[in-house]
Amino acid sequence: MPSTRDIRRRIKSVKNTAQITKAMQLVAAAKMKKAQDQASNGRAYAEMMNKVLVNLKEHAEEGVHPFFSEGKGDKTLVLLIASDKGLCGALNTNLFKKLVTSKIEGEVEYVTIGKKAVQAINRLRRTLLADFPIKDPAKFAEVRAIGRFIQEKFRTGDYKKVLVVFNNFINTVTVVPTIEQLLPVNPVTLGGKRDFAPEIETATVTTEYTFEPSAAVVFETVLPQYVNDTVYQMVLESRASEHSSRMVAMKNATDNAKQMIKDLSLEYNKLRQAAITNELLEITTAKMALE
Which of 11, 43, 151, 280 has minimal Cβ neighbours within 10 Å of its Cβ? Predict the structure, then answer.
């Protein structure tokens, strides 16, 4: 049975831990607000660009641009976006579980963002082509290098398609591990709000387009920008998910610490009361023995 001194030490230790988790909760909450604003502000542009290009893909001439058709190779290139740090609950665990349980056909090679992604790929003994460290908050200039790398790999024709595995931010308490096809151009869901298909678009939107100077020149300019922007938006979704999950995890840790302090304080008071009662009994017994 622990002594009152041991319980006091445990209470002090838990209080110190609660102070740390509370501070981390406040820091994560501040970062979460900025990350959520970044993610939500970029969705409208990414949605419209994806919607237009999906529609163009269905009506463009065959071979007008390599990003509209699958590569000739059998390999699949996967961009895995995870966090650099832990203490964010089951965020990364659920993401890696989604990757492992998904059935990706053929040989798969990986490009990663985040230290946790590199560790997961090494642990799974998968082929890692490149790792790109991205600072927080993410900047478009840094992500553009990733987009260029992916485009160069896809243009070689060795890869049938390019997939992105990331955490899709819905709200503060809801994050969905998601796998989306980046190339060839395909309908993409970000934030759980986009739900459209090419056939729906063709039924409601006029599909006659005039390109100047030509469709090939326009696509050569727009499609690389689309890849870069979509990857950037997915990174923003992942960062918003990370900070939200960390804030929730630290809040739960703080609440658990407070509850543990209450339980330990109750146990301490019981032991202290029992010790006082025993002392009173000993004094009373000794007094009665002297009489």
Answer: 280
Q: Do you find a cis peptide bond into 184, omega within 30 degrees of 0?
A: yes
Residue tagged 């243009």 (tokens) = 155
* Domains contained in the chain, number: 1
Euclidean distance between CA atoms 34 and 176, whole angstroms: 20
Determine if residue 106 is left, alpha or beta; phi over 0 gives left, psi from -120 to 50 gives alpha, anything else beta: left
In a domain, 36, yes or no: yes
Q: DSSP letter at 185? A: -
Q: Which domain holds residue 27?
A: 23-247
pLDDT of residue 196: 39
Task: Return all residues near 1 (Cβ < 8 A) that are at least 6 apart.
Answer: none
The pLDDT value recorded for residue 291 is: 67
pTM for the full predicted model: 0.84
What whole-number distance in Å separates Cα of residue 196 and Cα of residue 125? 36
Question: Which band of pLDDT confidence, cut at 50, 70 and 90, is reported for residue 128?
Answer: very high
Residue with token string 């209080």: 15
**pLDDT of 252-287, one tens digit each?**
999 999 999 999 999 989 888 887 888 788 788 877
Select from 5, 43, 4 the least CA-distant residue to 271: 4
The CATH number given to whatever domain includes residue 232 is 3.40.1380.10
Long-range contacts from 118-123, C-beta under 8 angstroms, 24+ separation: 120/80, 120/82, 120/92, 120/96, 121/80
Is 253 among the domain residues? no
User: Beta strands of 58-203 (E only): which ranges?
Assistant: 75-81, 108-113, 127-131, 159-171, 174-183
Residue 187's contacts (CB-CB under 8 Å, 6 or more residues apart) are: 50, 54, 194, 196, 197, 198
* Closest-CA residue to 109 (of 68, 149, 62, 65): 149
- Residue entry with tokens 């980046």: 182
Classify residue 1: in a domain, yes or no. Answer: no
Per-residue pLDDT tens for 176-229?
999 999 998 888 888 765 443 344 343 444 556 777 777 778 888 889 999 999
